[in-house]
Amino acid sequence: MTISSGTRLGVYEIASLVGSGGMGDVYRARDTKLDRDVAIKVLPDRFTSDPDRLARFEREAKVLASLNHPHIAALYGMDESGGRHFLVMELVPGETLAERLSRGALTVPDALRVGIGIADALEAAHEKGIVHRDLKPANVKITPDDEVKVLDFGLARVAAADSTVGENLTHSPTLSIMATQAGMILGTAAYMSPEQAKGLTADHRSDVFSFGVVLYEMLTGRAPFQGDTAPDILASVLAREPDFGALPVDLNPRIPELLRRCLEKNPKKRWQAVGDVRAELETVSRAPRAAVVAAVAQPPQPMWRRTVPFAATAFAAAALAGGIVWSLRPRVPAPAITRFSITLPEDQQFAAPAFAEVALSPDGTQMVYAANQRLYIRSMSELTSRVIAGTDTRVGYAGGPFFSPDGRSVAFWSGQDAATAVLKRIDIGGGVAVNIAQTGISIGASWDRDGIVFGAPMGIMRVSPNGGQPQLVAGLKNNETAVSPQILPGGGSLLFTLATDTSVTSRWDDAQIVVQSLKSGARKTLLKGSDARYLSSGHLVYAVGNVLFAAPFDPAREELTGQPVPVVEGVQRGAFAGFESGVAQFSVSSTGSLAFVPAPAPGALDRRTLAFIDGQGGVEPLKLPLAPYEFPRISPDGRQVAFSIDSGSVANVWIYALGGTSSPRQLTFAGRNRYPVWTPDGERITYQSDREGDAGIFWQRADGATAAERLTRAEAGTAQTPRSWAPDGKTLLISVAKDANFSKSLLFFSLPDRKTMPFVEGGATPDSLDATFSPDGRWIVYNPPGQAFGQILAQPFPLTSAKYLVAPLGRHPVWSPDGKSVYVEVPRFRSGGGDVMAVPVTTQPTFATGSPLTVSSGNIRLDLSVRERQYDITRDGKRLLGVLDATLNPTSTPAAPKILVVLNWLEDVKQKAPVSK
Known about the structure:
By secondary structure, this protein is mainly beta. The chain folds into 5 domains: 1-91, Phosphorylase Kinase, domain 1, CATH 3.30.200; 95-290, Orthogonal Bundle (Transferase(Phosphotransferase), domain 1), CATH 1.10.510; 298-331; 338-597 and 899-912, 6 Propeller (Neuraminidase), CATH 2.120.10; 604-885, 6 Propeller (Neuraminidase), CATH 2.120.10.30. 13% of the residues lie in helices and 38% in strands. The protein is built from 12 helices and 62 strands. Strands 52, 53, 54, 55, 56, 57, 58 and 59 form an 8-stranded antiparallel β-sheet that branches. It has a 6-stranded antiparallel β-sheet with strand order 1-2-3-4-6-5, covered by helices on one side. Strands 29, 30, 31, 32 and 33 form a 5-stranded antiparallel β-sheet that branches. α4 runs antiparallel to α7 (204-220), α4 runs antiparallel to α10 (274-284) and α9 (254-262) packs antiparallel against α10. The radius of gyration is 31 Å and the shape is globular.
């Protein structure tokens, strides 16, 4: 019987019926206590009328509630009201995968992305011993933000004891019938495994089979096993092989092979772990299309095909003879397209990922890349790389290399951070690096016979490679940013990327690729995208997201002569401080070779974990699934931790009991919510939220009993971040960032009157400004604006003119709970990442510091890709709780990055985007 709208089930108010199934009716409802929308699944009477079955169901529901994972719809709990037993679940917006497939097959990248999300969810469940048993497109949701959520996890197992003999199998594709005394059929006909169809025991390998069916359907738009009735479908599952010829013809061959192993009839021949399937998909997703095979020259046609009637004239015979001679000349085959990868040694990491990391020489014989704050060069005819002597900066970085036109020199940027960058050049054989110009923040450059052009805050600049004062060649308006300039053939026009939105969330996809006359200053917009390059083949190549596009282009007319087509997928974008720089990590030689840095596989950032770290190198991960964790903060009593989970489009604050006896609890639900900070009494969480349009600060009770309450409102173009509460709970330290010009400042927020007053005035820095009160509330430590890793200072509170140096190099200072030390992140310029040091501090009778001690072991690497504090200190001061990259061995260096190389790549571009003659 359908429950009418407005009916109350305990604290839940029914809104509408969402759907019905064998496990009961599902309703949209409102949780009036926590003020959130949920899904309510009312269980059938046959479950609730049997106490043993209900008790068994409750036990299973507890296991399912432990499945906290970004790609699994959460089960909040089980409740009862008015004799009705029901499950309370996460209400996932969007359409089901079945609804999406009703419009046809997905694109290959989308199918792989969704597949990786589903496989990741299955992997998390299998690790807890939970088998889905009813995986199908109808049980997968795709949210409006393109997030993947798997529904009804494990509920099929709960229903296994149910019997519905006599169901009409023709019209009810979900089967749950007692086939024999020995076995039972459970699942959905078109998606179940052969062992399920036979009524045999279904384990995790059955989910692998069902996953293969779903992936096949996403790629082809149709299920691999079909029939007019459910028995016909079951027969197809048991006896027939899928039509792999229906797959897209240009698929990477590893994808059909992956599907074949998923869809093996014999479970022993199938993939044995869905985690292996997920890893394979992540690898293939970087290159989902088949490799281009070089065209094979056709042999000359045999002479008999040229025979003409004997009645031909002598002239025709002579012409024929000439044609035969021409046809017998050897044809020059198209250059072979060759692909290979270069793996950097284990001790090398890319140095300055905001800049270009790799450059090919014009003749394609040499490659230079930036790693470990120095430049390395590698000949394409050799197997190893060597350091370019003279580029070892010792402090800071060396990055953004690009070659001279003759290939004998390399220019690059060197400095402590982007604000102090100096453009230098050096011979590829090494020597003394020559300073060209002090450029500051500069993204993208090119070098031709007339000099070097580069992007700068005021516009596009040109400078002689021998040094001198840079000259402005293309000015900008206040809201504009220009990167990646190139002088076009003829020297009269400039190609570059122009952006008017450089906010943290901008991916440069809406930037304009423009051509500007160096004489008149007139601009012409060509395309949307970024980091465009003109190639000798007559193409523009540019980036949108992680995809390179090519379009035929006439530089004389400054016009496109054909439509853009995608030519490379999975290219890494340049980024730092959490936002992209506009650079795509690729380089093309004049001879037509390509080198690029592959982008991380979809979901790579999800594979983080939270772990305790001690000074001896010990690591103790929390009992949590892998997820994109950020900003852990331990409660004042040391019993809980608040953290953010940021999937990119959705960010929320969660709370977890450190005892590990319960699942994490989601605290926030509206907007993007990040940077949690506990109030001193441990009753509330303060955080940044954009739920009302601005990036202001809110707080709410940590137990979720109250709704969020606004504390501050951020001005347009700024973002406010809570940093630290004074021990009396009356003053909050806040940092304010202006995205457009890197300006950062610190404010005091007074809770009684809810007013702010300045602490540290605005200054340019690519990093965040962090500050914390001492446990007694009498001191503040902070990193002032300036360098990314700069000084750490201390000041008394209330403020006086006195300032004290805590550390000459570091960021994100935080007091130890006993007030005897200040913890500071210190960079590792050689291998990337950073260590956490504890600086002993005394404040009486005068302020003094001691020798710093390493807290995180030398081989423990915190994930510092997000430039905010990614750790907190336990109340006893003996351990850190930090964010770690779970794909790495916590006691080793990160997995070595790769550079992918394609020789004669322009042959591929010419085939995909022909240039009109």
